[in-house]
Amino acid sequence: MRTSLSALLLCLAPAWMAGAPSSAAAQWTACSSDGKAAPRVLYERFLSADCTACWADAPATAPGSRSLVLDWIVPGRQGDEAPLSAAATRDALERLQALRRDPPAATDTAITDVTATAPLPGRLRVALGPPVNGYVGATIALARSGGKAAAPHVRAGTRHAFTLLLVETVPAGAEGNAAERHIVRNALQGTWEAGTAAPRAGWSELRPMRIPDGADPDRLGAVGWLQDAGGTVVAAARAQCPARGAGGPQ
Questions:
Q1: Own/partner pairs, 18-25, CB within 8 angstroms, 24+ separation
Q2: What is the pLDDT of residue 186?
Q3: Does the residue 221 lie in any domain?
Q4: Nearest to 205 by CA among 193, 195, 190
Q5: Fewer CB atoms inside 10 A, N or C side of the chain?
């Protein structure tokens, strides 16, 4: 079904307004990474869609409290007949390729430190609006603080690659899973490049992201990270939304 322009505008408005610290933004935004401690580690678990036990069993090791945990469901040899095929995405294969890892027969875990190699001209921020007609407005931004201090200089031509993910958090026991899972449901990637001067407000991307069939909109959140030209992850952010009716915006 084609999404109307008005529906997309409704979808995008909440995340766009999240950039402004106002009461109106708070009412429109489902959640953001504002006020949250920045993750220090990307902790990515890859599960083969062929492996039912990989989903049901608790992982052998537990990530630290400052880890950004993700569960990628990798398409398996059984194709659409695989037990976990409904949540499998080609994004998982592309992420494995970026990490130079092969698709697992069962599970695999990649751990990447978040290391600031140079001062950034702002703090990485992600935000998510409420679902509208099967889409949700999501934003990732490198936003400058509102203080009088000058932002660190960024040399013209400096490039950073960003990744923005739509993630569904499944509580332990909710879907036959022994541990809480953070399933990657959709992904967006792009590049920011500094010109002769960085934009006054910093860099930002705002997109409507489709909610895949089978995903629970009430369990969605957003995560993102930034990589420098050498591939080092230099910043990360997480916005884990509360279940609808569980409280105010996060």
A1: 18/127, 18/129, 18/139, 19/127, 19/139, 19/141, 19/143, 19/201, 19/204, 21/146
A2: 98
A3: yes
A4: 190
A5: N
DSSP H or E segment with residue 45:
strand 41-48
Confidence band for 105, pLDDT divided at 50, 70 and 90: very high
Residue 244 is assigned to a structural domain of this protein: no
Token output for 180:
């809480």
Domain of residue 104, residue span: 5-239
Separation in Å, CA 242 to CA 168, 176, 195, 250: 11, 21, 38, 7
**C-alpha to C-alpha distances, 28 to 18, 107, 206, 211, nearest whole angstrom:** 8, 38, 15, 19
Give the span between the Cα atoms of 209 and 215, in whole angstroms. Answer: 13
C-alpha to C-alpha distances, 208 to 52, 129, 164, 247, nearest whole angstrom: 31, 10, 12, 24
Match 């990744």 to its residue by tokens.
163
Question: In 3-state terms, what secondary structure has residue 53?
Answer: helix
Number of domains in the chain: 1
Which of 41, 233, 228, 15 lies closest to 129, judged by CA?
A: 15
- Count of CA atoms in the C-beta half-sphere (13 A) of 5: 0
In this structure, the strands spanning 67-74 and 41-48 are parallel
In DSSP terms, 182 is beta-bridged to 169
Report in angstroms the alpha-carbon separations of 144 from 93, 120, 159, 227, 232. 34, 9, 17, 18, 21
